[in-house]
């Protein structure tokens, strides 16, 4: 086992949404952050960039030398080739975490659960997904738990749909508004009256940082749920967009789910998103009591402030 450098983290996906915000939060908490990236970067963002690919085991192992945490926040862009790429990338991070004695950190999703049967989800709720992506997510967590049984340490923080200044694969920036353009209408994916959970990325990053600061008190296999912003009927999030843009009369159009299968053969991202429709028809709220018990509170930015910062960064206001 390699000597671990105090408060040094390797982030796979540090240029993305959750990875980028987690990097910023860790740096603010006094961590050294290393980012594995396929193409070199020179931005003065406080991250030590290492060129490499998450699919290259030797590159991941090399970048992980001396770190105490590995944040696995990397996904195939646009949900492409999930079934081929996701598990091999995770396996590389597991091998690296075991080799250097680091805690492996994974941003979890609600895809592990069937929304038709799980309106409220706790860490102990049985994971019985009804989608292909959900089955892959369950397998990811199973492999992590198996590694923890062999002696590795891990942390999974589950959250709802991400939004924020670094959007990544988010519904807000990929479907509801158009980045770089003023908001003239809102396309909402959810059924009328259906609740939906949102996670503001800076709050998620801050939560990861606070949990990792308490690494010594965490279980070997730690799993917590981040409640985030709960929109009980699908109107709260939309109203926040109206408030942030200063346009109280913005019209809401329902996402034409019935038309998506006609476009999906030519658009891999849409093909994957169609599978997510049940999560917009049925509520899945995350029970965060274990997280609050550990931290004392869940980091929370008021929705109107979060939306204003997000749409400003997206170039929509």
Word description of this protein:
The chain is α/β, with parallel strands linked by helices and 317 residues long. It has two domains: 213 residues, 3-Layer(aba) Sandwich (Rossmann fold); 72 residues, no CATH class. It is built from twelve helices and 14 strands. The strands form four sheets. Strands 3-2-1-4-5-7-11 form a seven-stranded parallel beta sheet, with helices on both faces. A three-stranded mixed beta sheet has the order 8-10-12. α3 links the parallel β4 and β5. α2 packs parallel to α3, α3 packs parallel to α4 and α7 packs across α12. The protein is globular, with a radius of gyration of 19 Å. The termini are far apart. The mean pLDDT is 92. It comes from Sphingomonas oligophenolica. This is NAD-dependent epimerase/dehydratase family protein.
Notable characteristics:
single chain; 317 residues; alpha/beta; Rossmann fold; three-stranded mixed beta sheet; 12 helices; 18% strand; globular; NAD-dependent epimerase/dehydratase family protein; NAD(P)-bd_dom_sf; NAD(P)-dependent_oxidoreduct
Number of strands: 14
Q: In angstroms, what separates the terminal alpha carbons?
A: 50 Å
With strands numbered from the N-terminus, the spatial order across the biggest sheet is 3-2-1-4-5-7-11
How many helices? The count is 12
* Strand percent estimate: 15-25%
According to CATH, the homologous superfamily of the largest domain is: NAD(P)-binding Rossmann-like Domain
Largest sheet: 7 strands, parallel
* Integer-rounded radius of gyration: 19 Å
Q: What do the pLDDT scores average to?
A: 92
From N to C, what is the helix and strand string?
EHEEHEHEEHEEHEEHEEHEHHHEHH
Here the CATH topology of the largest domain equals Rossmann fold
Protein name: NAD-dependent epimerase/dehydratase family protein
Organism: Sphingomonas oligophenolica
InterPro entries: Epimerase_deHydtase, NAD(P)-bd_dom_sf, NAD(P)-dependent_oxidoreduct
Pfam families: Epimerase (PF01370)
């Amino acid at each position: 086992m390699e000597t671990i450098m105090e408060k040094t983290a390797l982030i796979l996906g540090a240029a993305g949404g959750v990875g980028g915000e987690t990097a910023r939060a860790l740096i603010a908490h006094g961590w050294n952050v290393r980012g594995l990236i396929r193409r070199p970067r020179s931005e003065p963002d406080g991250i030590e960039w290492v060129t490499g690919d998450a699919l290259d085991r030797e590159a991941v192992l090399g970048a992980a030398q001396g770190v105490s945490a590995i944040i696995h926040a990397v996904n195939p862009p646009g949900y492409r080739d999930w079934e081929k790429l996701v598990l091999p990338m995770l396996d590389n991070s597991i091998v690296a975490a075991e080799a250097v004695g680091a805690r492996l950190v994974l941003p979890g999703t609600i895809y592990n659960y069937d929304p038709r049967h799980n309106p409220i989800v706790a860490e102990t709720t049985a994971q019985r997904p009804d989608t292909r992506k959900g089955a892959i997510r369950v397998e990811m967590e199973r492999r992590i738990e198996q590694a923890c049984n062999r002696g590795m340490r891990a942390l999974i923080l589950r959250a709802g749909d991400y939004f924020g200044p670094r959007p990544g694969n988010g519904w807000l920036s990929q479907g509801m508004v158009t980045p770089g353009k003023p908001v003239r209408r809102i396309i909402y994916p959810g059924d009328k009256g259906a609740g939906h959970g949102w996670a503001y990325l800076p709050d998620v990053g801050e939560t990861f940082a606070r949990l990792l600061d308490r690494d010594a008190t965490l279980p070997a296999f730690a799993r917590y749920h981040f409640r985030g912003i709960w929109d009980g009927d699908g109107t709260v999030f939309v109203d926040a967009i109206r408030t942030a843009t200063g346009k109280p009369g913005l019209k809401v159009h329902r996402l034409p789910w019935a038309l998506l299968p006609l476009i999906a053969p030519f658009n891999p991202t849409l093909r994957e998103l169609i599978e997510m429709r049940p999560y917009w028809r049925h509520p899945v709220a995350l029970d965060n009591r274990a997280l609050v018990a550990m931290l004392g509170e869940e980091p929370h930015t008021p929705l109107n402030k979060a939306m204003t910062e997000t749409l400003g960064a997206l170039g929509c206001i």
